[in-house]
Specification:
By secondary structure, the protein is an alpha/beta fold. Helices cover about 40% and strands about 20% of the residues. It has a single domain (about 5-175), classed as Nucleotidyltransferase, domain 5, CATH 3.30.420.10. The longest helix is centred in the last third of the chain and has 21 residues, at about 155-175. The protein is globular.
Length: about 180
C-alpha cells in the first residue's frame, strides 16, 4: 500500500468487479461510514472512476483482484478486462488490489468461508443485524435503519474489500516501519 493513501481522512471506492455489473461502496475513514453502495453497470462505474480521477489526494481505490483458481471461463477474462479499465480510469495510481482470499481470511479467518459467511461477519462487525441493518418491525416498534440497510448482492463483497483494506491501512499506520517491509 502506498503512503499517499495515509492521512487524516480517506474516501475509498471499493469495487467487486464483474463481467457486466459490479458491486461498489463509497466508504469514508475514519468512522467506517458507508456513503453510497450498490451494484452498477460497469460503464456507469467506469464513469464514476473517471469523475473521481480529478479528486483530492484523500481518495483511494480498492478493487478485488481475480484469484488464481482452476479453469477460467469467458466471464473471468471479461472481469479481468474490467479490472484493468477501472484502474486506468482511476488514474492508475492510489489503488490497491485485494483478493477474495484476503477478504475471507481477514473477516472469517478461514479460506473455506463463502459469501454468506463474509456477509454475516460484516453484519456482526457493524453491531449485529438489529443495529447494522435495522428496519425491522412495525409502527413504534420498528427499529431504525442501520448503516448496512439496503446493501445487497455484490455490494457485500465490495464492503468486504473496503473493510479489509481499511483494517490493513490501520495496521500499517500503527507500524512506522511498514514502509520498509519490516515485520
Amino acid at each position: 500500500m502506498d503512503s499517499s493513501a495515509r492521512g487524516s481522512g480517506v474516501r475509498l471506492l471499493a469495487i467487486d468487479p464483474g463481467s457486466q455489473d459490479s458491486g461498489f461502496v463509497d466508504y469514508e475513514l475514519p468512522g467506517n461510514k458507508l456513503i453510497e453502495h450498490g451494484v452498477a453497470d460497469n460503464s456507469r462505474l467506469l464513469t464514476m472512476c473517471y469523475q473521481r480521477r480529478v479528486r483530492p489526494s484523500s481518495w483511494h481505490l480498492a478493487i478485488e483482484m481475480v484469484d488464481v483458481f482452476g479453469m477460467a471461463g469467458r466471464t473471468v477474462f471479461e472481469t479481468c478486462v474490467w479490472i484493468g479499465r477501472f484502474i486506468e480510469a482511476w488514474g492508475a495510481m492510489d489503488f490497491t488490489k485485494v483478493t477474495r482470499h484476503e477478504v475471507k481470511m481477514h473477516l472469517c479467518h478461514t479460506k473455506r468461508s463463502d459469501d454468506s459467511m463474509v456477509r454475516a461477519a460484516l453484519i456482526e462487525r457493524f453491531g449485529g443485524e438489529a443495529i447494522a441493518i435495522g428496519g425491522k418491525g412495525k409502527g413504534k416498534t420498528k427499529t431504525p435503519r442501520g448503516p448496512l440497510f439496503g446493501v445487497a448482492a455484490h455490494a457485500w463483497q465490495a464492503l468486504g474489500v473496503a473493510v479489509t483494506w481499511a483494517d490493513g491501512r490501520k495496521i500499517e499506520a500503527d507500524n512506522p516501519l511498514a514502509d520498509w517491509g519490516a515485520e
